[in-house]
Amino acid sequence: MAKAPPSSPKGAAMVERSVVFPSQDLPTDPGVVTAFAQAAEDLGYSRVIVYDHVLGAVQEGRTPPLTAGYDETVPFHEPLTLLAFLSAVTSRIELATGVLVAPQRQTALLAKQAAEIAGLSGGRFALGIGVGWNHVEFEALGISFRDRAARMEEQIEVLRRLWRNPTVDFRGRFHRIDRAGLVPRPAQDIPILMGGRTTASLRRAARLADGFLFAFGGDETFRQLTELNEGVRQVGRDPADVPAEMYLSYGAGPESWAADRKRWTELGGARMAIRTSTSSAALLGLDVRPLTTVDDHIAAIEEFAQWWSANDPPISPDRQGGRHQCSNRRTDHPHAPTQRDPIRGSA
């Protein structure tokens, strides 16, 4: 089976732009999620990213403590289900999990689900995975929290074997597959992206990943991109084979976007993803007006797309033919946006 090309072409001079689906802000409504995904596609975004939590948990009285900004009140879409739906209402934009907590999942079932989305989307799927942090969630799903990193490393090997081979005979620490296989298998390898913010996660990605997602931003991310690239070289790989993506907060505003884009490009980053979630902005200490409707979020990603295009470096003639051309915005869905005014609050 031929290996899929890296998510960002080797040697590409242009940083691509993606969008993070605002799972915490948009309801499970087919018109709403369709409107957002189609708007992102029509605006020329190359990838839509959906992140993951199966359960939220009460944080008080936990040992060890739960310190992240998500609790039992925060909504999350199930990413694989949502992306399967989005594969039917889009035609060009890549669909990615960013990240799915793989050690919580049965590996053979995850391989099957990923292969199905890849097939239904025409190969537009990338599987972003991470080890997770919510021990309450692991316990509820009947999975050991302690050995999740080792389990995920083995999962990656099993996933690739199942996608590439008619039958698999595998015995490992966490998996036993006795001469069995997936039908149908994906037409090409599904890119496996990774995320995290520890040195261990960067070293793991340097060895095993087809890309990396930096979801936190700031100086930490720039430092860790350098660390990731150094780790990739140390294991004999090319950093272009592990393209890195950095998330930006819409609420930070153009001055911050410009500084981050300049630095990210200089360091060799491949993609940047705009995140419009008001909750994510609040975690960064940004004072932004809540984006309460799908129209608000679409207006935000349109503002960012216009800013991005206005600040693009000149395109050489040999790259003109490959640049994505934005099609006319769909207006036949029930939640088509009706206003285009910038809605960012003060940063």
Q: What's the layout of helices and strands?
A:
Layout lengths: L15 E5 L9 H13 L4 E4 L28 H11 L4 E4 L2 E2 L5 H14 L4 E6 L4 H6 L7 H17 L3 E4 L4 E5 L11 E4 L3 H10 L2 E4 L3 H17 L9 E6 L4 H13 L4 E5 L2 H6 L10 H17 L37
Parallel strand pairs: 1-2, 1-11, 2-3, 3-5, 4-5, 5-8, 8-9, 9-10, 10-11
Antiparallel strand pairs: 6-7
Helix pairs in contact: 1-10, 2-3, 3-5, 6-7
Any idea what the radius of gyration is? 20 Å
Number of strands: 11
Helix content: 25-40%
Largest β sheet strand count, sense and barrel closure: 8 strands, parallel, barrel
Structural class: alpha/beta
Strand order of the largest sheet: 1-2-3-5-8-9-10-11
> Please, how many helices?
10
Order of helices and strands: EHEHEEHEHHEEEHEHEHEHH
Cα end-to-end separation = 48 Å
Structural write-up:
The chain is α/β, with parallel strands linked by helices. Helices cover 36% and strands 14% of the residues. It is built from 10 helices and 11 strands. It has helices at 30-42, 79-89, 107-120, 135-140, 148-164, 199-208, 218-234, 254-266, 278-283, 294-310; strands at residues 16-20, 47-50, 94-97, 100-101, 125-130, 168-171, 176-180, 192-195, 211-214, 244-249, 271-275. It has an 8-stranded parallel beta barrel with strand order 1-2-3-5-8-9-10-11, surrounded by 6 helices. It has a two-stranded antiparallel ribbon with strand order 6-7. Helix 3 (107-120) packs across helix 5 and helix 6 (199-208) packs across helix 7. The chain is globular and about 55 Å long.
